Amino acid sequence: MFKKSWIMPIAVIAGLSVNAGMPAMAQPAAHQVSMGDMGSMSAMFKSLALTPDQKSKFAQLMMNMVSEVAPQREKALEIQNKLMDALTSEGNVTEETLKPIIEEDSALQQSMKNAQVKLFMGMRDILTPDQLKKLRQEYEQQKMAREKQLDVLKQLQKKAAEHK
């Protein structure tokens, strides 16, 4: 049986936060999601007004995602640790010596992105056209907020370049 309390922990583990699109090495810490991310996810699910059947199907889809992605998230942490160990080690560290770690991370990120796309394709099968439209509207609002953050970052980059 579907339980409402499962949505957020499962979504967090599955990597559906804003951090999901970031390389593991760029994330502050594995499995870390801000409260704002959780709030926006929760609001999105509430706004869709899922039926009990949809909730059940969605919960199963999320559980499948967790079983697929959780080991990958652990591997991402291992790779991040491997990179930081190399970067902070004594001795000679070059881009060439780091290349295998970076390639391993890139392959893992691609695999995680594929799993995320698989999840969203499954969601499309569950949602009605009206719910999909509502999801798109929610996404557009979040996208605008991220674009504002990007504008701030660009301004900071411009100021940093002026001080060089």
Sum this structure up briefly:
The protein has 164 residues and is an all-alpha fold.
Plain-language structure description:
By secondary structure, the chain is mainly alpha-helical. It folds into 2 domains: 124 residues, no CATH class; 36 residues. Helix content is 76%, strand content 0%. The chain is built from 5 helices and no strands. Helix 2 packs antiparallel against helix 5. The protein is flat, with a radius of gyration of 19 Å. It starts with 6 loop residues before the first helix and ends with a helix. The N terminus is likely disordered.
Helix content bin? over 70%
Characterize the largest beta sheet: strand count, sense, and whether it forms a barrel. none
Assign the structural class, choosing from mainly alpha, mainly beta, alpha/beta, alpha+beta, or little secondary structure. mainly alpha
Distance between the termini: 59 Å
Global Rg? 19 Å
Whole-number total of structural domains: 2
Alpha plus pi helix count: 5
**Binned strand content:** under 5%
How much is the average pLDDT?
78
Count of DSSP strands: 0
Question: Can you write the helix and strand succession as a string?
Answer: HHHHH
Broad shape: flat
In the predicted model, the low-confidence regions spanning at least 5 consecutive residues are 1-39
